[in-house]
């Protein structure tokens, strides 16, 4: 087995021609490891679904190559790629039963009937739908249809399973259940999953690695932790979780804010920079504390497990801190109060631009 | 019916009577025809009791039966061929991105709906006379071909409607699951298309069964279909067995159209 199950090399997908051409994908290169739960994350229109469709073979790239397990599959039609897809709309065949849907790929491959029946039974057991084998698709609930779609795509044991926002049609509770279910299926089958979503929380929860995409380009690839704690640019920092952005000037030892305060940061970046810091990495201290940045409390928003404290610095820059709820529920802050803000050492990121 | 409506056509004066009048105009003659097909009197003017005699008389008339056989053979074959061609045409016009001139192609396929039938009949007469002279063949083949041609749009419309209503992702999914283009058509597209194809076949069959003008122009001597036979009888004296034949044709048409209605209502 090759080191990478899927490698994208300089993939470009343009729609339209001439000056009206739109690059849905702009020179994307990516390596996905065998057995990985890999997520393509980005807002709608970022190119994540286009990339998935190129992997599946539903569309051909305008330029670039796709390697599957070391072999060039760039122009191979979808029916000749050992890659299967779970569609956003499920795309189950309404004229076939659950069992016939799950066995469809094996039947197309000309597998013997006994083998098809055995695999279908195994797959239905895997997604816990044994009792539904003879049902029509229209007799199933949304969650059950979702599981049939998974079983159907897993039945031929593809090298890679593509999942195009498969959970977006489910309600929140079912969605949480299916997230766990998907992880379990991936562990049990050992198949590489490439998962497309616009939901950053879903991506952080489920993925081994995430590729954040925007405007047809890869912004950052990394583990959920790397992406959350070390976002490479302002887009990634803003898209994943909540972040404070403060304009500053980089100098030796840290970033100098317009208020004159210095936020210490490792590594030197000179010139105009943006300081990115998560709300949970800000501590509120008495204003006279050494190293604290002076701020005024503007608003307090309680959300159960904590309170968002919205503040303004001396120059008017907005800043939000997330405070844990103490046992009493009272955080002892009042609107208009002067406070000191102390960033957790090492938590601030300097971003160019 | 709790839906709020600011305006209801039925509230306007005269709507109900007008509708009644129109339906009476449409159906009263047909009802009269069916009733008089059971009239014992040989004249259409007087009612003289109930009888099945005219149906029996038509049944035992070998010319009528011959014409009926011709009608059924031509309609069955023409419906079969036109449905097959219409299916291909419908696939060709829906399973690809819209292209320049697609509207012109729709118009070309639906030509028999727009060109006056008498024009087509004369044109066919000229061409077929030439082929007959050249080959000597004078069988039912000409009628089958001509009927196939004008039945195509009737078969094409329901099939295309069905194809356009189909979820294209299903075909993508079939390809994703290792189906070759042919397997994808055979196991996914065709099963979903079947109600449309059957509906198209029935419409084509009824259309062929009913045709007079083109058939009258291009048939060889002795090749009467039911409608042309009835037209021929009309030139002599109107007898109630024509009523019986018309009523029988109407019955067959109703059965087929009910089938069409049920099939086109059936959801995937």
UniProtKB/TrEMBL annotation, chain A:
MF (Gene Ontology): ABC-type putrescine transporter activity; ATP binding; ATP hydrolysis activity
Gene (UniProt): potA
SUPFAM superfamilies given in the database record: MOP-like, P-loop containing nucleoside triphosphate hydrolases
Pfam families noted in UniProt: ABC_tran (PF00005), TOBE_2 (PF08402)
Catalytic activity line of the entry: ATP + H2O + polyamine-[polyamine-binding protein]Side 1 = ADP + phosphate + polyamineSide 2 + [polyamine-binding protein]Side 1
Free-text function comment from the UniProt entry: Part of the ABC transporter complex PotABCD involved in spermidine/putrescine import. Responsible for energy coupling to the transport system.
Species whose genome carries this gene: Rhodobacter maris
NCBIfam families: potA
Subunit structure: The complex is composed of two ATP-binding proteins (PotA), two transmembrane proteins (PotB and PotC) and a solute-binding protein (PotD).
Gene3D superfamilies named among the record's database cross-references: 2.40.50.100, P-loop containing nucleotide triphosphate hydrolases
GO CC term, one of those recorded: ATP-binding cassette (ABC) transporter complex
Protein name: Spermidine/putrescine import ATP-binding protein PotA
Domain ABC transporter span(s) in chain numbering: 6-240
Keywords: ATP-binding, Cell membrane, Membrane, Nucleotide-binding, Translocase, Transport
EC number: 7.6.2.11
Family as reported in the entry's similarity comment: Belongs to the ABC transporter superfamily. Spermidine/putrescine importer (TC 3.A.1.11.1) family.
SMART domains hit by this protein: AAA
Automatic annotation (TrEMBL), chain B:
Keywords per UniProt: Cell inner membrane, Cell membrane, Membrane, Transmembrane, Transmembrane helix, Transport
InterPro entries the UniProt entry points to: Bact_Polyamine_Transport, MetI-like, MetI-like_sf
Localization per record: Cell inner membrane; Cell membrane
Top-level taxonomic group: Bacteria
Membrane-topology annotation of the record: Multi-pass membrane protein
ABC transmembrane type-1 domain: residues covered: 68-263
CDD domains in UniProt: TM_PBP2
Any Pfam family the entry gives: BPD_transp_1
Stretches that traverse the bilayer: 12-38, 72-92, 113-131, 137-157, 242-263
Gene3D superfamilies named among the record's database cross-references: MetI-like
SUPFAM superfamilies: MetI-like
GO biological process: transmembrane transport
Any one GO cellular component localisation term in the record: plasma membrane
Family, per entry: Belongs to the binding-protein-dependent transport system permease family. CysTW subfamily.
Function (record text): Required for the activity of the bacterial periplasmic transport system of putrescine and spermidine.
Name recorded for this polypeptide: Spermidine/putrescine transport system permease protein PotC
Originating species: Rhodobacter maris
